Amino acid sequence: MTPSSNYTVKFSDADKRVGRTQIIAGYSIIAVFFSCVFAWSALAPISSAAVAKGVVGKDGHRKTVQHLEGGIINEILVRDGDRVTRGQPLITLRDVQNKSDHELLNKQRLIALAKQSSLVAELEQREPDLNFLPAGKTFEVIDASVRTTIEGYLSAAKSRLQLHRDQLDLIDRRQKQAEEKIAALRSERTALEKQRRVLAQEHKKYKEFEAKGLVTRAHVFSLQRDKTEIESDHSANRVAVENTRQEINNLAMEKSELEGARAKRISNELDKTRSTLVDLDERLSKTRDRLERTSIQAPIDGVVVNLLVNTIGGVIQPGEALLDIVPDSGDLVIDARVKVADRDTIRVGQPAEVRFTAFNQRLTAPVTGTVKLISADALSNSGPGGLHDSYYKATIKLDEDPASVLGEGSVYPGMQADVMIVTGKRTALEYFLKPITRSFQRSFRDE
């Protein structure tokens, strides 16, 4: 037989049985493998998670420093990275107008206090004094124009008080004169009553003498005339006493009216002055607040970041953000941006795993945390082309100290992090079938 001639190989029955056994064994191994894979995928639970990007922050968040009224920058006292304490000045503003307004209001208030003090002294009928001056301030150091005005108020109060005293003295003298007149009239009436009794006795006696013819009728008539004159003088005396008493009553009423009118005038002026003082105190409080706000101070202890102003003489708009302060105190938290599609799967209290992108992912373990807060509504950021990227903000509180997990690595506010929020457990089979079932549901809905 030549080499090129055809030939056939014959297998024995034993060889065929061995080959069949090997094929069956191979298929069996494949079947067992896929059965194990299917069983694992159907039974083994795998944690499902919502993946989000986050930034390290402090619990309580960074504080943005703003200014209510705005103004012109006079001095910038801090730089990015400076550590500050609560109440420390950060930026000062020019305060020329505020100082001028505050000084003017202080002068007006001092004048109003002087007026109030002089009115109270006048009401109490005493000499006005300088007790209204603020503690530690003497009359000599007051502004000249203010001092002149105050001296005018004090002098006017003294003059009005002296005039009032003179008016009261005049009324008192007139009352005293009237009382002396009444005393004289009473003495005169006593004498007249005595004369009247004597004349009455003589008239009676001489009438008896006339009846006996011992005296003439002319003599009796003369006594009668004298008696009538005495009666007339007595009546005139009584009328004079009543008139003088009425004069005393009128003087007392005049004195009371004078006191009442004076008290009413002073009370009205005091009310106006006190109202003016209340208004001035309110305005002074506002200017004092504005003056205090010309020194922009740190609201908390922390580190200055994101300083947005750097020009002396630059203008700050009302409410403009000037800088941020990252607080020293407070635990580290992660502010994560959760996709809108994942919102229905996350809840407060769910566990999370955090990996910090600054460290080698293969060499560092994740830090565990818990969802502490989820924003009530979706937030958005403007992206390129006017597009808006919507997300929910989730705050993750770290359950362990990052230093204990990361070793020598340190975590600082502002560092980036990848967050996996554990939303539940599903089998691998459910993972594989979910896209298919979702596709079927969508196709049936379209039909």
Please provide a brief summary of the model.
By secondary structure, this protein is α+β, with helices and mostly antiparallel strands. It has helices at residues 13-43, 96-123, 144-212, 217-293, 402-406, 428-446, and strands at residues 45-58, 63-66, 71-76, 83-84, 89-93, 295-297, 302-305, 315-316, 321-327, 332-338, 351-356, 367-374, 379-382, 388-398, 416-427.
Could you give the topology of this structure?
Elements: H1 13-43, E1 45-58, E2 63-66, E3 71-76, E4 83-84, E5 89-93, H2 96-123, H3 144-212, H4 217-293, E6 295-297, E7 302-305, E8 315-316, E9 321-327, E10 332-338, E11 351-356, E12 367-374, E13 379-382, E14 388-398, H5 402-406, E15 416-427, H6 428-446
Antiparallel strand pairs: 1-10, 1-15, 2-9, 3-5, 3-8, 4-7, 5-6, 7-9, 10-14, 11-12, 11-15, 12-14, 13-14
Helix pairs in contact: 2-3, 2-4, 3-4
Q: Please tally the β strands and state the result.
A: 15
Dominant shape: rod-shaped
Placed side by side, the strands forming the largest sheet appear as 1-10-14-12-11-15
Q: Output the number of helix runs.
A: 6
Sketch the major β-sheet.
6 strands, antiparallel, barrel
Whole-number radius of gyration?
Answer: 56 Å
Structural class: alpha+beta
The fraction of residues in strands falls at 15-25%
Uncertain segments are 1-5
Amino-to-carboxy terminus distance = 72 Å
Order of helices and strands: HEEEEEHHHEEEEEEEEEHEH
- Mean pLDDT value: 79
Helix content: 40-55%
Number of domains: 3
